Amino acid sequence: MNDQTLHDQYGLRHNPFLPGLPGEALWEPPEFNHFAAGVDTLVLVGGFALVTGEPGIGKSKVLHLLARRLEDRGDVMVGVMERPQSRLSDFYREMGQIFGVDLSPSNRYGGFKALRSRWGHHIRSSLVRPVLLIDEVQQTPVECLDELRILSSTAFDSHCLLSVVLAGDMRLSERLRSPDLMSLNSRVRVRLDLRPWNVQTLRAFTRHLLEQAGAPHLMTDGVVHALAEHAEGNLRRLVHAGELLLAVAASRNLPQVDENLFVEVFSRGPVGAVSPPARRVAG
User: Fold this and answer.
1) pLDDT at 170 exceeding the cut of 80
2) Which of 22, 29, 144, 158 has a CA-to-CA distance to 253 between 20 and 30 Å?
């Protein structure tokens, strides 16, 4: 099932339940604007921001939204760390690639000075801090987080050279409370703790996905509600279920995803699919 098939059958511009949505189609959580405003301030002064929540709750999409927002400003250098689990030598190598600095892993002090010089030049020319976004930080070694904390500030910790947005699951929250990372935790200025979403919000999320894909009537109201209940507060669980329903509907050339299909698909419990809904939804 590809986008052309979905367009021919349902008029969809893209599959609304796949991860690679166009940036303009992303859903903004209710708390996003408040958090993003805090990061806007952080860009002026530097420091750390933190996004936490259980897997599948929407942390990575928050970073995606934030990256788009910052890049749209035009004056902010935005970098994304792709390998958060790296040890210190690879950490410096990737930092050099992100910020356009030629670093030698064998000369860590030289890399330290070169990065700070690069950031200082950006601040003087634009009056804003560069931004580094790191996802899955629960996997990042303590030595790298410590290095990042020291690397990003100067003048006895009174002047920040970098704005850093960290995202991770609840293991990150626990790690930040440990003695090894208490100093970093105390420097977090802006926080967003994502919790399981209620049914009303999940319905709005699903409707947003369908509208942005160009087919708001692809699913009946009953299916939208059933998906929201079925997801148990988790966005990833919802889109996986939605993707499965859409695939089955497309394979049968059904004009719409309705309650009968929902009950049929999830009552038979196919391998790898989500479990049956808590209750059946009347038509």
Assistant:
1) yes
2) 22
